[in-house]
Each structure stands twice: as C-alpha cells, then as structure tokens.
Amino acid sequence: MTTEEAGSDLVVAYVVRHIGCEACGGTYRPEDVQVVLHHDTQWALKATCPVCYVERAITAYDQPPYQQLRRDPGLFVPAPITSDDSSMWADFLATFTGDVYDLLAT
Ligand SMILES: [Zn+2]
User: Fold this and answer.
1) Of 7, 45, 58, 94, which one has the greatest count of Cβ atoms within 10 A?
2) Distance between CA atoms of 18 and 82, rounded to whole angstroms?
3) Are 56 and 21 a contacting pair, CB within 8 Å?
4) Amino acid 2: pLDDT
5) Terminus-to-terminus CA distance in the chain, angstroms?
6) Residues in the chain with pLDDT < 70?
7) What is the pLDDT of residue 19?
8) Other CB atoms closer than 10 Å to residue 49's CB: what's the count?
9) Residues whose Cβ atom is located within 5 A of ion ligand 1
10) What is the largest CA-CA distance in the chain?
11) How far is the CA of 101 from the centre of ligand 1 (A)?
12) How many angstroms separate the alpha carbon of residue 97 from the centre of ligand 1?
C-alpha cells in the first residue's frame, strides 16, 4: 500500500465523501479505502465496506482524463471540430431516430 504518497489523503477523502457501497449503501471511512496503485495522475483504489465487507475497485484521476490529453504531447490529440463536422452531425441527427443510448453506441 502506498498511502504515504502525496495526494493520497485527498483522493481517499474524496472517496469517503462522495462514494458509497454499491451493495448496501454504507459509507466508507478513510481506513476502509486503500491505494492499490498510483501512476502519473491515475489512482486505483480498493474500498471495503465496513458494514457488509463488499470490496469495490475505484479508479480516480487527479484531473479529468480529457485534460491530460492536452498536457501530454506524446498522446494523440483529436483535431478540433470544424464547421464541416458540425454540418455532418446536424445531417446525421436530423434523421436519427434512436435515443441517447443508441446514439452513443453508434
Ligand atoms: Zn456495504
């Protein structure tokens, strides 16, 4: 466990404040959350519910992953959206009959 790493207290505190047990709805205490892995801005955590003992894997980031794309020049950065892209999507959506789930699966 690497809980001594800088920033781990903040990540664990976030989990304690905002994430609960999926099985029973119980809340986590700081001692129920362990840092399993920390690489660059990504954290892998394991939370064990103090009520029902169900374990949950949680992935957290120091910042939203899309912001990391702009920071790391070695990563692929998609081209900006052009007016042609907007027109193409407008045409597509004008005839699209599905819901949001269908759209995201397209
Ligand atoms: Zn639980």
Assistant:
1) 45
2) 37
3) yes
4) 45
5) 41
6) 1-4, 65-73, 75-77, 106
7) 94
8) 19
9) 21, 23-24, 26, 49, 51-52, 54
10) 54
11) 29
12) 40
